[in-house]
Design brief:
By secondary structure, this protein is of the alpha/beta class. About 40% of the residues lie in helices and about 20% in strands. It has 15 helices and 14 strands. The longest helix is centred in the last third of the chain and has 25 residues.
Length: about 400
């Protein structure tokens, strides 16, 4: 029996998202999520796509090992268990791969050690990713486990884009450089955008705007990332749901010296209490838009700051690329918030950018153009599919020989 199935695991600090895909036709066989791991109110929601049936269980799930076992049990109920002879591999999302991992990698002890060494630059993500990998390895030690890194797509950035202007020896010693994130999504979306234009990825220059609670922009020339807005960590760049994005580094010194804040308090402030949330108390763009419609000045200001930063990056990456064939909006806000898309390109007509009001307002689950017919630069909405991208990269690495 051929092995054509890939289980994709995205292990977060308190959740595990999963999908089981058949790579013969990229179809989803099952999807689910385990939430609030470690709490009394844990929940697992599982859907078998073949039948459309959804099951939900509530109750304490102590840790990630228990969560993965619960996932395996749910899959087994539908005849899709981890013991299936059709399962080729498990693909894991790993947020930070540093400079060491620039492509999908079969996990072994050396790989685990290196991912662990990167925890200081990804303290919220890499520990959970590691736990998911180790638990899956324990459940199926004979099955290839593949790590797919968020940072890998950005490894093509030239040194002049990846380096910070600080002492080189110090930077190298502590691995301080710009790595970028959301790379799995941006790789997928840049290829899909080229296909939407009827061109090969190597013939297209695209600015990808991944706008969710976390947000980033990337300049992609001919299928290769040449610059991206996130840096050493996911804190740099655009205004996000709860992250500040770009700010003068001296703000940190000021808050410590004058504000009397500790480094941990400043870290929490910039990562969890800033961005849209810090500006207006909400990090949900739908709620912010509702408040704007009711005349809320604070929500309006937060939106304007968000858009201003977004426009700055569009302009900067237009200059970096020299020629732009398309701008692609993706992720939760990018795919669903028409006012954000409209505002982001408003006033940029001299750069060939515009949206058609009716096309922009129309929804849809497929990649689509929202720019006027004959526009010099295409503006697109391209739903991201990180799970499919992880499964595709995983299967390309280990699956086709089965």
């Amino acid at each position: 029996m051929s092995k054509t199935r890939v289980l994709v695991l995205n292990s977060g600090s308190s959740s595990v998202k999963y999908q089981l895909l058949d790579m013969r036709d990229n179809s989803r066989l099952a999807v689910g999520i385990v939430e609030r791991i470690g709490e009394q109110t844990s929940r697992i929601k599982h859907t078998a796509l073949a039948t459309g049936g959804t099951r939900e269980q509530n109750g304490p799930i102590a840790d990630h090992q228990a969560a993965l076992k619960a996932v395996a049990e749910e899959l087994a109920k539908d005849g899709l268990g981890l013991d299936s002879p059709e399962l080729a591999a498990v693909g894991h999302r790993v947020v930070h791969g540093g400079m060491f991992f620039t492509e999908p990698t079969v996990v072994d002890d050396e790989v685990l050690t290196e991912i662990e060494r990167l925890i200081p630059v990804a303290p919220l993500h890499n520990p959970a990713n590691l736990t998911g990998i180790r638990t899956a390895m324990a459940l199926r030690p004979d099955l290839p486990q593949v790590a797919v890194f968020d940072t890998a797509f950005h490894a093509t950035m030239p040194e002049y884009a990846a380096r910070y202007a600080i002492d080189v020896k110090l930077a190298d010693r502590h691995r301080v450089r710009r790595y970028g994130f959301h790379g799995t999504s941006q790789a997928y979306v840049s290829r899909k955008t080229a296909k939407l234009l009827g061109k090969a990825p190597e013939d297209v220059n695209v600015i990808v705007l991944h706008l969710g609670n976390g947000a980033s922009a990337s300049a992609v020339r001919g299928g290769r990332c040449v610059d991206t807005s996130m840096g050493l960590t996911p804190l740099e760049g655009l205004v996000m749901g709860t992250r500040s994005g770009d700010l003068d580094p001296a703000v940190i010194f000021h808050l410590e010296r004058v504000g009397g804040m500790s480094m941990d308090e400043i870290d929490t402030l910039l990562n969890k209490r800033s961005g849209l949330f810090g500006l207006c108390g909400d990090n949900d763009m739908r709620e912010i838009q509702r408040r704007i419609d009711e005349g809320d000045a604070q929500a309006r200001l937060a939106f304007d700051i968000y858009i201003h930063r977004l426009k700055k990056y569009i302009g900067a990456y237009y200059a970096v690329l020299g020629r732009v064939d398309a701008i692609a909006f993706t992720a939760g806000v990018g795919e669903n918030a028409a006012p954000v898309r409209e505002a982001a390109v408003a006033g940029l007509e001299e750069l060939g950018l515009a949206v058609d009001g009716a096309l922009n307002a129309a929804g849809g689950d497929e990649p689509r153009l929202i720019s006027p017919a004959g526009a010099r630069v295409a503006v697109a909405v391209v739903p991201t599919d990180e799970e499919l991208e992880i499964a595709t990269q995983t299967y390309a690495l280990v699956g086709k020989g089965n």
